[in-house]
Amino acid sequence: MTVSAQEVRCLLMRGGTSKGAYFLAGDLPAEPAARDDLLLRVMGSPDPRQIDGLGGAHPLTSKVAVVSSSADPEADVDYLFLQVGVDKPEVSDRQNCGNLLAGVGPFAVERGLVAPGPRETAVRIRMVNSGDLATATFPTPGGRVEYAGNAEISGVPGTAAPVVIEFPPGSAPLLPTGHVRDTVAGIEVTCVDNGMPTVLIPAESLEVTGYEDPKELEENPELAARLHELRLAAGELMGLGDVSATTVPKLTLLAPPRHGGAVATRTFIPVRCHTSIGVLGAASVAAGLRIEGSVGAPLAAPPGDGDRLRIEHPTGFTDIESSLTTGPDGLPRARRTAVVRTARKIFDGTVFPRPAAASPLPAPPSGGPR
């Protein structure tokens, strides 16, 4: 293990529409409490600006991927995702992150965990948080990861090399409650889990349009109170227990599409409104739209002949390949899920955590030095 009180080897990478610090598991403490304490200091938490660490003052830029070789014969590497709190000293492993997943394959090649192919490399990944599997395929011309390319995803400036991520059908039920529709906190919803526990909610049922700017939705106290109530109740119903201290299930507001997609979305994580949508969250939305009788089906544009669905979000869209089948219990199950994402290596080197004995300084008063 190369970790010390002063420095840790780290690769900072954009994965999809998120940004995070990638570590080899062996470069971090094995004991979870010690590991989490170190990561809080690395990211500069708790502090709303994360001024003393790598974090970017937003949940989408305060993420960590821990990667190691896998003992699972169906995987090459294990990927543990950790959501690091911004203004709270919290580190959560209760969910996956499909955006940072886009960088796991390239990171595995960069660190020598997987030998690259001469043209492209496929890395089989076990998502430790849930036990689900994914395969990421990306270009490696000449045996080196290629980050430049022509693939474009909404919410990210410019273009990059494509990372094709395919998810085999999981063993968990697509409908965790066993019902296509449930009434939760007085609202009719569809609870779906296609890699991310998600509650689909018609926006109009909460007296919003579903087209609002994320900031406008975040500043609506009545909406916040209703979403909190709904999330706690849905968590219990979905078998997740008390979710008051976790970020799952995600809540996604649905509205008819405005820009040629299948549906418009606004997703909460859990109180901040996502400026786009997570990969696994989009996969759950896409599957939910294909379930006959779901709350999203009447709002969505009629699907075409193929598997691809375009999920609109505040900064553009995410395309998801999604198809369903019927299980032996007569309930719908995911048959195929795939998405094209991009990733880019930003920095590779050594990060110096805030000393363990230090406490973060209070933020300056409004109007003070910046």
From TrEMBL:
Region Disordered: start and end of each range? 351-370
What EC designation does it have?
5.3.2.8
> Coiled coil where?
none
Q: Provide the top EC class.
A: isomerase
The record's keywords, sorted A to Z, are:
Isomerase
In which residue ranges is the amino acid composition biased (Pro residues)? Answer: 361-370
Classification via Gene3D superfamilies: Diaminopimelate Epimerase, Chain A, domain 1
Q: Which family does the UniProt entry place this protein in?
A: Belongs to the PrpF family.
- Which NCBIfam families does the annotation name? OMA_tautomer
Please report the name of this protein according to its UniProt entry.
Answer: 4-oxalomesaconate tautomerase
Q: Which organism is it from?
A: Streptomyces kunmingensis
